[in-house]
Structures are given as C-alpha cells and as structure tokens.
Specification:
By secondary structure, the chain is an alpha+beta fold. The protein has one domain (2-309). The protein contains 14 helices and 12 strands. A hairpin with a 2-residue loop joins strand 11 (281-285) and strand 12. 28% of the residues are buried.
Amino acid sequence: MRLRLLAVSSLLALATVASAADPQLLKLVMPDAKVVSGIDIDKVMLTPFGQFFLNQLPAPDNGFQEFISATGFDPRRDIHEILMASPADPGKKTGLLLVRGDFDAGRILSLFTSMGKTPEMYQGVAILSGGPPKKGNGISEAFAFLDKSIAVAGDLDSVRGAIGRRNTAGGALDAGLSGKIGTASASQDAWVVSIVPISSFANAVPNKNVSGALQGDLIKGIQQSSGGVKFGSTIEISGELTARTDQDATSLADVVRFFMNMAQMNSTGHAELGALLKTLTVNTEANAVKVSVAIPEIEMEMLFKMAHQAPRI
C-alpha cells in the first residue's frame, strides 16, 4: 500500500508543479534563484486531464461564493500561469509565487482594507503583509498586485525585490538555470528545474529517515535535477538527474532500476500500477540519468482516483 501511494503521489506531485515561461513573470524572479517551477494553467485546462481534475474539485461552499462576489476573482477561471522560484537556501526559507491572471486589484485591496489590513506602499505598489514575522523564522509573508494581470506573493523581502525588478530588462538569472528553464518550458506543460544538489535539502526535511537518505553518498552525487509533464491523450512524464561523473550516473540508474523492479514485484493486485511501472524507462547519457513514462490519460484518471480513495495509513 505504501509503495503504491508513494509511486502515485510522486507522479501527481510532479504533474502539479508551469509551458514556455512568460518572460514578464520570469524577469521578476530573484537573480540568485536556484529552483524554478511552473504550470501553464491555460494549456493544461484544455486537455482531458485538466477537465477531469477541474471536475474533481469540491463544489464551492457559501464562503467561496461570497469571496468571488466580493473580489470578482474565481481561481478556477482567472488564473492562467504560475511560476515559483526560490534561492533554495534551507536556512532562509525565502521564495516567490508569481501568478498571471485576471485581477480586479482595487476591489481585492479594498476588501482587505475593510478587514483592517493597511497596505505598505513600496515603489508605488501596495503590499499587503501577513503581519509580524512568524515565530522562529523571522519571515513576514506578503503579496501585491503589480498590475491587473500579475500578482506576486512570498516573504516580504522577495516581494519587494520582485517589485523592484518589474521595469528591468530581465536576464539576471544564472545562465545555466535560464537555459534549463527555456528548454523545459518550451516542451512541457508543467516543469521544475533545480541547479542545487538534492542533498542540500537534507537538513530541511523533518523526517529523520528521509533526511538521512538524502545525505547518502549516491544522493550526494546528484548535482542538478529537472522534470516535466506534457498533457494530452497520453501524459508524458520525464525527469533528469545530473550526477558528478558518468560512473555516478550509471550507479544511480542501476539503483533506480532496482527499485522499479521491486515496485513491480509488489504491485500484485494493482494492475494499473504494474502496467505503469513497465512503461517506465531509465537511460544514461554521459553523467545524466533520464527517466520517462507515458501514461494513457484515462489511466492517469484511474491512478488519481486510487490515490484519493486509498485509506490513509
């Protein structure tokens, strides 16, 4: 059961993480960003799985309807693209959520003002803060509307930084990261790229077993990673892990294949999962390990339902 949930959850997590990234959003990303991801909501919602997912959402309650009436904003309809970015410093926990959508900023700000929230004006932009910094991390959360089509949220310093970059030409990102973003976003509806070693997140993971695994020699060899999803009648999910050396990549691929075989052996009674694992391929190219799987859209729907209907253990 745990193995099945882990496999399905991993696929769904990747599937929900932005397509050719909007340059207006991209130039707002902090120059020291190391991890960037996003989803082209418009494209995804035109696909069969996007419509299926939308139909799985619970019916809006009275509170949600009141929010729509008060703000004129319906997230099911008015969000078009999402971009997320972070310097990936576990000690600081800073980051940005950038959203391209349709916003009646004045109306939304008026609602918050009527609730006693006082905006901070910064370079002509009203910032709404979540209040004093959260206990223990010294971080104050905030959000702002840069115009009627772009909203930004995150820690206060990162939001201020995005406001300061809104009139720049952009292009300040690490060249390697920028190249990976261009490649991933041009070919995928959903993507994530990272240029930091996976092991650097070990201390930020509360589970000691997972934290320990991330500090293993094999994981320490993974220097960069990326993944993406292309939706359609067949959903194509791919990932790439860049190791220190060609030998590290070969060893990593062997371990991935081992766990794939173990998962197949334990998928007895779950035909959909077993069939999915059989289509998963693992290849190496120099120091890169490439993993891919193609899933008929109808089977992804079944896996989604399985994950949500399975008892929590």
